[in-house]
Amino acid sequence: MASFFSRKSIISLLSLTVLNQVDAQLLEQKPELTTYNLQSVAGVPISSEFGNPIGSNGSAPTDATPGQFSAYHSSGAVVAPSKSGFLDATKSLAENVENLDLPRSSDGSFALIGGASGAAVMSAQPSYMFGGIIPFPDSAKIDGVETPISNPHAFWYKEPYKPKYTIVAIHPIDKNNLNIIKVTTSEATTFESGDIVEVVSASNPSWGGIGKPVDILTVAEDRKSFTFQVDPNSASTNQQAIFDGLDPDKEVVLTGDQYVKETHTSKGYHFSMGAQTVFAINAGTVKISWREAIGVDDQPNGYEKIDWIKIKKKVTYGIKRSLKKSITFII
Fold this sequence. Notes:
Layout: E1 2-6, H1 10-19, E2 27-28, H2 97-100, E3 110-115, E4 121-122, E5 133-134, E6 139-142, E7 145-148, H3 152-155, E8 165-170, E9 180-185, E10 196-201, E11 213-219, E12 225-229, H4 237-244, E13 258-262, E14 269-272, E15 277-280, E16 285-291, E17 308-313, E18 318-330
């Protein structure tokens, strides 16, 4: 930012400078507000080949954008008079440029009386402190409009939403190749490498399959299968139990109601079943999804699995549609 004055028209330029003065603002990084267009019918730029993986529009660049991730420098300064300068109190600042020896043009027509370069950038401020309670959303998108909720505690289901994916096969463990196990699901998942998931039997909590939380090693391009590794020498009793219970020559016997879902701690938060409360446990960005507690019979506006989901009601044995909302926080 710089202010210049013409010695020949001081009054008009002083007025003009004051009216058009621009002050640099403090900038804050807010990664939780990044907008991702996941509703694009044409897909999103996640690869340079259309449809590979599913959902790609093929427009992702293969090379880095010139100048991207380059260094950033911010600096600031003031225009100061020389030590030998003096101020004539009967004159304005613009009329004192020679007396103060301020930077000016060779003919004295213009003078620089103030200047600054760059602006300060601060890191993102946390939404909640480590160990803090993360409350329910105070609004929901109803009929396409973001609407305040008078009682969020009653509106939302207490436990954050995690989709369940039906398992169609748990392939034989390869005990000769790093003890890798492959799991196939009936539909594409949202899992990523490093996510923590658990395989559950809906009707038999003591089912003798995997049934333990495991870290995903790789995810297939069609996202319908993933692998994980079992380390029988691990200090974890879960790892040893899984290894001992798997036959390298046979697939795990399924009873038809096994499903896999991501654990809450996988995404940096903890859900207490006893307190029915969500706690922040990891620093960084945390994305949490909630679903409506009651649900409706008619299909809401928006897209399934993004704006609403189908839920089974045990009492009526019917299908309800429940609103869904995802929020990203900084811990």
